[in-house]
Amino acid sequence: MGETLLSGLVRAGRRVDHLLVGEKRPERARELEERYGVAVVSNAEASRRADTVAIVVKPQDMGDLLDEIAGELRPGQLVVSLAAGITTAFIESRVPDGVAVVRVMPNTPALVDEGMAAISPGSHCDEQHLAEAEALMSSVGKVVRVPERQQDAVTAISGSGPAYIYFVVESMIEAGVHLGLPRATATDLVVQTVFGSATMLRETGSHPVVLREQVTSPGGTTAAALRELETHKVRAAFLAAMEAARDRSRALAEGS
Ligand SMILES: NC(=O)C1=CN([C@@H]2O[C@H](COP(=O)(O)OP(=O)(O)OC[C@H]3O[C@@H](n4cnc5c(N)ncnc54)[C@H](OP(=O)(O)O)[C@@H]3O)[C@@H](O)[C@H]2O)C=CC1
Ligand SMILES: O=C(O)[C@@H]1CCC=N1
């Protein structure tokens, strides 16, 4: 996710001499320097020199990382965390008083500038800090502001969401192959169908039920398929899956 954000900032025209990357593995540091022309430095140096520090380590590594950089941070600086589950209160408790913290939940379509990010302010954040975080994430897609109490649900919906869509795509391609289509044909059909459907949702603004009804001819093929999806409780499965993701996000906050 960190490289996705970095690549988006570079694509969006941020000056590479205004970006610093903290990376601990030397071979990975060289790779990032060569690929993007950015300076890769220690986490401590990046934290000392940057006005905005974006943290994109796993939630389980967050405590150690904050302990490593806390001594370099100063009041007024902005820390933007992209980690699932980790609360602004947790970060604020480990950095100097007055450091502003914004919690962000991004997603991987940021790699093609079609990301969806939700941002929430911590307790020392002013409008300027929030606007800075918004500008950062706007480089790679759409941004909404949400109260922090909604971030676990956001994580379950849009943070993990791309994986559910890929799962559906994968399942439809497999079904196409079962029905006798060449795999390449099935893949083209499914990918364009998902892309076209998403574009219709965004461009018409119509409710998905309305769009679904337009496809569903009386007594036709779609009605036959949808009845099977209901029989197999796919709607209930989606609800259970997203509750599980929300609960996992909450548990990450507790360090498990
Ligand atoms: N993947 C996704 O779709 C999304 C991820 N996120 C969040 O983004 C964060 C990263 O997730 P993801 O990219 O999937 O995970 P990855 O494991 O791919 O990336 C985490 C990176 O952090 C590096 N890292 C760990 N400790 C340090 C350290 N002390 N200093 C510098 N780098 C360090 C790791 O390096 P190494 O490999 O050497 O250990 C690794 O490259 C998580 O908090 C996740 O919740 C949020 C939304 C979506
Ligand atoms: O699976 C995860 O924990 C991360 C957070 C959201 C998407 N990926």
Automatic annotation (TrEMBL):
Q: What does this protein do?
A: Catalyzes the reduction of 1-pyrroline-5-carboxylate (PCA) to L-proline.
Its subcellular locations are: Cytoplasm
Q: What is the protein name for this chain? A: Pyrroline-5-carboxylate reductase
Where does this protein hold NADPH?
A: 43
Pathway info: Amino-acid biosynthesis; L-proline biosynthesis; L-proline from L-glutamate 5-semialdehyde: step 1/1
Q: Does the keyword NADP apply?
A: yes
Question: Could you read off the lineage of the organism from its UniProt record?
Answer: Bacteria, Bacillati, Actinomycetota, Actinomycetes, Propionibacteriales
Q: Name one GO cellular component term.
A: cytoplasm
Question: Any idea of its EC number?
Answer: 1.5.1.2
Q: Where is the Pyrroline-5-carboxylate reductase dimerisation domain?
A: 148-251
Q: Which reaction does it catalyse?
A: L-proline + NAD(+) = (S)-1-pyrroline-5-carboxylate + NADH + 2 H(+); L-proline + NADP(+) = (S)-1-pyrroline-5-carboxylate + NADPH + 2 H(+)
| Enzyme kind, highest EC tier | oxidoreductase
Q: What molecular function terms (GO) are annotated for this protein?
A: pyrroline-5-carboxylate reductase activity
Q: Which GO terms describe its biological process?
A: L-proline biosynthetic process
Every copy of the Pyrroline-5-carboxylate reductase catalytic N-terminal domain together lies at: 1-85
| Highest taxon in the source lineage | Bacteria
Per the record, the similarity remark reads:
Belongs to the pyrroline-5-carboxylate reductase family.
Keywords from UniProt, A to Z, are: Amino-acid biosynthesis, Cytoplasm, NADP, Oxidoreductase, Proline biosynthesis
List the InterPro entries.
6-PGluconate_DH-like_C_sf, NAD(P)-bd_dom_sf, P5C_Rdtase_cat_N, P5CR-like_CS, P5CR_dimer, Pyrroline-COOH_reductase
What is the species of this protein?
A: Nocardioides euryhalodurans
